[in-house]
Amino acid sequence: MGKTHKKIVMAGICCLMISMLTGCGNDTTKITEGMQLVETLDYQGALTAFDEAEAQKENSRLIARGRGIASMGLTEYDQAVQYFTEALELSDGWVQNVDYDMNYYLAAAYRKNGQPAEAKKVYDAILELKPEEKDAYFLRGSAELELGDYESAKADFDKAISMDPKNYDRLIEIYEALADYGYREVGQEYLQNVLNTDKKLDAYDSGRIYYYLGDYQKAYLALEEAKGKGGVDSYLYLGKAYAATGDYNYASSVYSNYLSKQGPDAEIYNQLGLCEMAKKDYQKALEAFQAGKQIEGNSLMQTLSFNEIVAYEYLQDYQKAAVLLKAYLQNYPDDQTAIREQQFLSTR
């Protein structure tokens, strides 16, 4: 899926946001319809709904915002930038929550479009108006890493951590961002500092920190304890820790145990499939990826779809893989790995 900076923190796209601005009454029917189509990844259908909303003279700012989000889904980032800029220019001068929402989207579009310098300017503007925005410090730091400005990035990461020192999810995101750009040791210093200073760290948080530090034995010992609390992430990290040691059989049993007791989960199915792939049981891997895809509204549809294609390739069903890959690229046309995979399949 690429670098951590793709994990952009943005406001939701559901009717709740629309209702805060204009109400989900008849005057936003087509906008609501368009946003619902975005959630189902039907971006072309969403754009048609926004065109109809414009014809019905619905809220112009929300139409432009929706078009921007749909354009990002279509990987038309230049167009997305134009739409988010248009939406912001339609402001009445009073800064509202939706303005921050759209600025985050605008910055995300710039970064997707390979314009981290422009994204940084947006985060600068957000922080000038709202210096307590923790997300903006993290995201600006990630953009600064893209620009090769390590010192500024670290200062922003330090600020984000100081504002929310117990947010270990964010700390791990910072570690991953630093590791992606060649500063793994710096990221590990952040993680080690938590182990050294937080004496009340629970088994789950200590386990996953040990995992990212590469101390897999300590990781799975802590996560075995955390597993009893039943959280899906505890099982995910526990399985990953065992897989990292090469014990794919036990990792698979961890995931299968969760599924049998707790029910379907897309990420668990994906990790189970990866373990089965490592064990060269490609049929079981395929079944796991397909089971994950059956879960409606899951956020891993792209990953599961690609892994399904790879499983078919290993099963030497190149015709099925090619058909699925063609459909995949219609939904995710900027996936360079999939494009290279298509070139490979064309030779089979």
UniProtKB/TrEMBL annotation:
Q: Does the keyword RNA-binding apply?
A: no
User: Which keywords, in A-to-Z order, does the entry hold?
Assistant: Repeat, Signal, TPR repeat
Region forming the signal peptide: 1-25
Start-end of the TPR repeats? 100-133, 134-167, 266-299
Q: Which PROSITE patterns match?
A: PROKAR_LIPOPROTEIN (PS51257), TPR (PS50005), TPR_REGION (PS50293)
Instruction: Enumerate the Gene3D superfamilies for this protein.
Output: Tetratricopeptide repeat domain
The record ties this protein, via PANTHER family, to: TETRATRICOPEPTIDE REPEAT PROTEIN 6, UDP-N-ACETYLGLUCOSAMINE--PEPTIDE N-ACETYLGLUCOSAMINYLTRANSFERASE SPINDLY-RELATED
| Name this protein carries in UniProt | Tetratricopeptide repeat protein
Organism in which the protein naturally occurs = Waltera intestinalis
